[in-house]
Amino acid sequence: MKIPLKKKNRLFQSAAFVWLAGIFFGQACSPPEPQSAEDLLSYRIDNVPLPEEMVPEISALGFSPEGRLVVANRIGEIWIREPDQQTWRRFAYGLHEPLGIQIVREDEILVAHKPEVTHLKDTDRDGIADTYLTMVDDWGISDNWHEHNFGLPKDAQGNLVIALGQADKAGPMREIYPRIPLNLDKVLGESKISATPWQGWVMKISPEGTLIPWANGFRMAAGVGVNPEGEVFVTDQQGDWIPSSNLIHVQKGRFYGHPASLKWDSRYAGGEVTTELVEELRSPEAVVFPHGSMGGSPGEPVWDLTEGNFGPFAGQVFVGDFTRLLMRVDMEKVNGEYQGVVFPFIRDATGAEDIMAFSGGNNLTIPAGGEGRFYFEDVPPRPGTRLRQGNMHMAFAPDGSLYVGQTTRGWVDAEEGIQRVVWSGNTPSEIKTMRISATGFDLTFTKAMDQEAAVKPENYKLSRFRYLYSSGYGSPRADKADVPIKEVILSENGETASLVLDELLPGFVYRLEVDKLVDDEGKSIENPLAYYTLNQTLDGQKFEGKLSEAMFETSEPEERAGPDLGNGARLYRTFCIACHQEDGKGGSTEGFSSPDLTAQESPLRTKSSAALLRYIAGVEQETLQGRTMPSFGNFLNEQEIEDVFHYINSTFKSD
Amino acid sequence: MKANHCNIILALTISAMAIACGENPKVAELGPAKTTGIPVPDVQVFRTMMPDAGPSAFAVRFTEAGLAMCYDPVRGGVNYLWKGDFDLQPTVTGKISKLAVVEGEPFYRESDWHPLRSSKSLDEPDYKFLGYSVKEGALEFNYAIDGEVKVRERITPIDGEGIRRDFLVENQDRTVRSLYLHLEPQELATVSVDGGTVGEDGWTLFQGEALRDFSITIHKKDLEK
Fold it and tell me: Are B22 and A424 inside 8 Å of each other by CB?
């Protein structure tokens, strides 16, 4: 057992305690040893062993009242892990792509799958479900591949909640029986269509099994959750009419942006649906997950109700993403409506080869599309167990660890299964909350910040932008601008910083980066990035312009005077960092070995600039330790290669 | 009491030490995974996308009999029956999934509306699927016809050459006076009804005791004879 970094205020760090403990427990806590990078992590990742017989495409998971882990997979099975944490039993099979479970008891489970919500019962108590009762199926389905039924939390009144995804004309759709009404018409230029009722809706199911259409305008709400107060939230996916993925507080009768579902809304069915109408109807999301920066395809939101067993974020929301990313969300109510901030929580390297191989519009290894690639920033690989992709389903275990179910079928061949995130007991240095104030934003930190750095406005990089609401597939960032910080007021204990601004504009997403801040022990903030969705100010100001149009004219790009080091830095963080690491020194992490760019014998010193440019472009290749650098010439244009080369050269080349 | 206090202090101290050592003491270690074994029942039931069937139809495998069946919960009834098996892999492969593959030639087909109805009408009966069960190897589908008539239909293979469909009608309050069965002619199978009265028009009428339970037997014709 190794002793990690000590904290000043912890009783058990005292030498007396360790000495006393040593007397009682012998070698239980051995003398300090050199610590590995893995030991210093605030959160570690464990792979949860799964039986060979289980197809590990995890499509739902949860814990029974008895504390057993219950898991669904996409081929239609339900598995239960016994309390010994090793023995699994298959409880049910033959379901049609289950994507939500509600565990009544160990022998009674409700499942949301494609055609219905089914009540599974083990009536003869042999540990295997024998009865599959249809609880509700009052919606249409076709055989289209993109129709999914996500769920299945319970709201404050005991209603179950589901969200139906929309069909995709890219796949076949047979019209078979008139019992299922198919309407393939488009409402307003959308690419996903609501082919049958109630695709694109969030619905409630009463305890008696009555289906209650609740709200619409959803494209593919792949994550459904309920907060401790019983209010319903979903995540929706960037695409047509959804400018960026998001977290939505679902309220009865509201419309959240995707017009296809309006064809089943009696208020608008059959009438003319115009851009003006949907702009007027659209309710904003609580939190935008900026595409590329915050993944591209979010999953199920879960609330940390572990009362501190998962670290310092009790009450906050965690959301997985299809990329190697878990996010953390903090919301506040402003004039009765939720809005808030999203932070990265755990990110892991994707790696240049995967990015290059899978960056097409139809793949989610990194967020799809040019905007996704542009705003995506890769990270060096995490020490220890790596975070996988496909993090669409999550649940907190009774012991306070966070279980993450992964599935990637159809988009990328990757590792799937279940991982769990365990808090080490070390409090990370993080921005805990970012809340709006009358004059700007108040930040609270998990630890006291170093005062000298924390009071300097230049150590807080704040900018803002908007997304434009249209039928296009996602939106570029519009109305971008840096936001000057007039003053930073730090609380006496160093744990709160108030940013005083000249302007606070509703309808904008505010991006904050604080990579220069350190805590009072000199440690950097682990995830120094935040995006706050400002729907309204404390005095009730809301966005009043057109959602589909930029407010400010974009200035013409200045003529290129030479390499753009800022763009070079961005490209380095996207394509190079996973191998070469943040400091350019490379690393020995398996699969990511690369030369130390800062060393005397670095290629930056031993090769000519022209040769290095050809090397980056892949015109010349060299195998090092059995590994050849990917050919970036297939992916980056000449200017981008020039930018990234000059960034590398100016940053890492030793004198 | 003293012993309890000691235990509590011991537990707290161990927890505290684990935290000091950078580990969350409440999170148990994970061991290798094993299973209690996956039973291979004689009747295996999957909801999937089948050819010539409504969405999310049933693919049913009668392993020992070497028979397979497509049961349609939208139309209601046995869509087709064949000797052989099916392949579900296409339904769970790739982004845009495909239909299951039927491995064999169907010898029985239904394509009309559900064969049972509460009136002698060729109109579509109101069919509502209610679920299914597999208990002690017996497969049973539950549904309601025309709103009021709840039916339990048990399906069992016979001789590896066909199936028997036993119908049990819930009619305790005797609100249902009669039921009608309309079967489509079959070229490759013989179909017989046990119970009820067959009219000249081919419809079978169930009344009184016959209404409560009756059966249909479907048998593959031996065309070589």
Answer: yes
User: Does the CB of A179 have a partner CB in chain B at under 8 Å?
Assistant: yes
Q: Residues A379-392: pLDDT tens digits?
A: 888 989 999 999 99
Alpha-helical segments (H) within A541-593? 565-571, 577-580
Tell me if B46 and A113 make a contact (CB, 8 A cut-off).
no
* Rg of chain A taking only CA atoms, in angstroms: 26
Within A180-322, residue ranges assigned H as helices are 275-281
Interface contact A171, partner B, CB < 8 A:
yes
Cα–Cα–Cα angle for A515, A519, A525, nearest 5°? 35
Which residues of B are less than 8 Å from A21 in CB distance? 13, 17
- The pTM assigned to this predicted structure is 0.91
Pairing of strands A87-92, A100-105: unpaired
Whether residue A384 contacts residue A44, with contact meaning beta carbons closer than 8 Å, is answered with yes
pLDDT above 60 for B7: no
What average pLDDT does range A313-338 have in this prediction? 97
The backbone torsions φ and ψ at residue B222, rounded to the nearest 5 degrees and listed phi first, read -90, 95
Hunting for tokens 């409504």 — which residue is that? B54
Contact call for residues A288 and A238 (beta carbons, < 8 A): no
Q: Which helix (H) or strand (E) holds A15?
A: helix A15-25
Domains of chain A (ranges, CATH numbers): 5-40 (no CATH), 58-136 (2.40.10), 138-232+248-285 (no CATH), 431-534 (2.60.40.1220), 565-652 (1.10.760.10)
Cβ of A76 within 8 Å of Cβ of B56? The answer is: no
A296: DSSP letter: S
Q: Which of A274, A66, A77, A126 is nearest to A188 (CA)?
A: A274
CB atoms within 10 A of CB A377: 19
The contacts of residue A107 (CB under 8 Å, 6+ apart) are: A121, A122, A125, A127
